[in-house]
Write a structure and sequence with these properties.
Length: about 260
């Protein structure tokens, strides 16, 4: 290793502490640092240097957290793990969606710019890093394949999907709203597999900094009238197990230095 080289720091983000509880328990040599009113935990996770952080809920909070991880801690890659509502047919509760791209479903600067287009960027979607996303997809495949084991705490029959995820500062929790969201996106040529509240913001920050980004979301509900009932229990009992298993698989596949 050259004098200027240092191990790549992988930042793992989640919106809620319950989604990271298992990861924090596994973190070796954990040290807490507080920046911008946020607590970050640094240590080793499966022999990889890692920073765990909570984006909090919503795009503004997620933007600040991602910027701190990159600008202050020097994160060389960011991975988001959390929950989302399923939108597309066939994306069911317990499945995992690995993002290829993100779009802000509540962004509308028309008539100055087309609906969904990020002003001054000339695009509506921000892509995840292809190489890191491929590793995350493989990690999710391996973790879910292991769910068939009798001792597994993951849901049997869960599938991994890859595609577009929509983000917005609104918890989509009714069938009518979900339908309107899908229709509006489809009219603009976008088919979103899931909806959540942070990923598009982090994707844009990482694009600006040139930092690799990948994201996975466990489907906790169908973004319909049952969302408010399913969400809290699912996050605590299922999503944290997905995060722990899939991040374990991912850490083992990452290169040791950047």
């Amino acid at each position: 290793m050259t004098p200027d080289a240092r191990p790549s720091l992988t930042a793992i983000l989640s919106a809620l502490s319950e989604e990271q509880s298992g990861l924090l328990e596994q973190l070796k040599g954990a040290k807490k640092k507080t920046v911008a009113g946020r607590d970050f935990w640094l240590g080793q996770l499966h022999d990889q240097p890692v920073a765990l952080g909570l984006s909090r809920i919503g795009k503004v909070s997620a933007t600040l957290t991602a910027a701190v991880l990159i600008g202050h801690f020097g994160a060389s890659r960011i991975v988001f793990t959390g929950v989302a509502g399923g939108l597309a047919p066939g994306v069911k509760v317990g499945d995992v969606v690995v993002a290829h791209d993100f779009i802000q479903h509540d962004l509308d600067a028309s008539p100055l710019f087309p609906r969904y287009e990020v002003p001054l960027y000339g695009r509506s979607c921000f892509s995840c890093d292809p190489a890191l996303t491929a590793l995350l997809k493989q990690a999710a495949d391996r973790a879910l394949a292991a769910s068939s084991h009798p001792a597994s705490q993951l849901l049997t029959g869960a599938q991994v999907h890859c595609g577009l995820i929509a983000s917005g500062d609104r918890f989509v929790s009714s069938a009518a709203e979900s339908s309107r969201l899908q229709s509006a996106l489809a009219d603009a040529g976008h088919t979103a597999l899931a909806v959540e509240m942070e990923g598009a913001a982090v994707a844009q920050v990482c694009a600006d900094y040139g930092v690799a980004f990948a994201a996975m979301r466990t489907i906790s509900d169908r973004a319909d009238d049952t969302a408010h009932i399913d969400f809290p229990t699912f996050v605590a009992d299922v999503a944290s197990q997905y995060a722990q298993r899939i991040m374990e698989e991912l850490m083992r596949s990452l290169p040791e230095t950047g």
